[in-house]
Amino acid sequence: MKKLAGLLLFLALWAIPAAAQDVPVGEISGAYSLRRYTQGMNSHLTLHGWDASGEYNIWHSWLGVAGDFSGTYKTVNCAPFSCDYSIYSGMVGPRLYPLGHRKLTLFGDGLVGGAVYKETVPRGVGFPSFTNLEGGLSWAVGGGADLNIWKHWGIRVFQVDFGMTKFFYASQTNVRLSFGFVYRFGEK
Questions:
Q1: Do the Cβ atoms of 178 and 30 come closer than 8 Å?
Q2: Could you give all domains of the chain from N- to C-terminal order, each with its CATH number?
Q3: Residue 124 has what DSSP assignment?
Q4: Which H or E run contains 2?
């Protein structure tokens, strides 16, 4: 009987911090994004840009639905002129919080959606300008950590996603690193 009482006391004390957690109804974030995009023949493009996401927590403190939108850009020398590359993506999927919402909140997600690849070559001597535009499927899995500074504001310390895009009848791998700010609203 003493063991059972001790176990119940331990569980009650352990549950107090969990009950005291502020679980937001949702959050929005804005971040700097760095994408490493693998083109054919193992050539890579490193693109810089932005990432914006929104989330609604649907199951107490451990499960939410996230929408993620990003745009990354690169200008390279295509002698005798410059070529501009950009990739935009929009994806949605579940976001899991294995330890709940805490001062340092860890999360993982799996997202699926679409992406657009755009390549612009300016007009050159004897050549007209052209834009190559392609849309396709995109998915990503990854995770990150948020450091909650104030009641509503936090810092996205990092988010790393590994993903695939499908442009021009081929698949390309993508690795994306993001960090920025998070605003949480509401309370469950």
A1: no
A2: 26-185 (2.40.160.20)
A3: B
A4: helix 2-19
